[in-house]
Amino acid sequence: MPDTKFEIAHLQNPSDQEIDRIVEVLSGAFAGDPFSSIVVGGYTDRADIVFIQSRQSVAAAAIGGTIHVLKADGEIVGVAIWFGPGQSLNSTEQQRAAGWNEFMRIAPDDLRSWWVDYFIPLMVKSGKEAFGRGRNGEEYPLEAWHLHLFGILPEFQGKGYGKKLVQFAEAEAEKDKNGNVMVVETTTDVDVIIYTKLGFEIKKQIGVESSIGNARLWFMMKHTGDGQ
User: Fold this and answer.
1) Which helix H or strand E contains 123, and what residues bound it?
2) pLDDT digits over 117-129, tens only?
3) Under 8 Å CB-to-CB from 96, ≥6 apart: which residues?
4) Which end of the chain has fewer CB atoms at under 10 Å, N or C?
5) CA–CA separation, 60 and 66 (whole Å)
């Protein structure tokens, strides 16, 4: 690994192969994460559900978001998926057709209802309460750089690459006249500590209920540059 060449890049117009590789990386990064089971309703034995639930977010970001990747000798080993100012997940039919519609089609009734009737409304309501409105009057996270998914393969964790991935996006945010605020939601105490060290502040904490167990979720925000 000492001779490994690492680079961080903005991945534009990713191929299906690159999207699938990102899904593989996220699967490895989140292995054993309880919240990953919650978002698929405990149907972890349904490989089709697990795969499309993760892939639909990546595919939507390829259309209407921003994907930053960490590469080791040219192979993707880490990823940060953002939705910049004016962007949001599955906000267009083109994005939804890239995977969300299929996820809703194959999801059992209880899982579909959890997403549509409970989790999405909860996130929208809590996000408004946590982040408020930006300087242009738009509600966050639409006026911010919103970190939607972030993961690095275990063998590359704890080496500072996650920090560099966030700093890469921070540099973009500082140049963006439409938004120099970064927001993220996270579900573990460890991640809260990590994001706090990166300059994020907790704005709200909520409980998330599900049929297979409950979880906590933190809403965090950071102002970049002179964006106070």
Assistant:
1) helix 120-131
2) 999 999 999 999 9
3) 60, 90
4) C
5) 10
